[in-house]
What does this fold into?
Amino acid sequence: MAATAPTPPARVNPGASLLARARGHDQQAIVTMFRQFIPADEQIHAAEFLGTQGLWGVGTQSFVCVTSRRFASLRVRLLGEIVYEDAMLEDVNSGGVSQPSRLLFIPWFAGWFLPLIVIGWRIHPAVLVILLVIGIALLPVVIRLFYRLFKCGIQMWVASRQRRSISAFSDRKLLGRANAVYRAALTVRESRVKGVAVALPALAAERPPRPEPQRTPAPPLASFPPPVAVDREGAP
It folds into this structure.
């Protein structure tokens, strides 16, 4: 399968850091980040930056990649924490792209700010102001909890003893890129599964037959000693 056409990169400073270039949709920078985890012999069919899970540009940076063998996600959190996950495409059972409704934000944020307003108003107006400042400062955490409950982006369910999923967050305005990556993953997975289905019978035909186990025949009944009669009291 031919690689998809690269997305035109945004205008970024050539001297900027690798993460900054990747956030600017620089395809070469995104591929370089994934090449630290993916073997060099795997062809990359799609690699995208899907946005920031947070507020005001502060939060977890989400990247996704599809190779000739695997689906991979990369999350770069605050203070440089990196979380990489992947799964072989033939192990993926199902997947999808989801986007929660904006109406869900209203009760979610109301449930966060209303208790702060009520508590601060009953105590003192100065306490109300302090609680509101704290509530606004913790908004990135509140949004992260929201997207943990209501998924937005790509999800791939992997077959394993403990059913697990690999997810990649996507910003709403970048959901089109997430759809393109998901379609590329399905296309590569289909060809991958077909190739595995063709290779398995060929490997089974090349495998040498197992030798028949040698069984030792049981001794004839005449070789066993005759039974000894025992009376009621147990004496022979």
In short: The radius of gyration is 30 Å. The longest strand covers residues 44-55. DSSP finds six helices and seven strands in the chain.
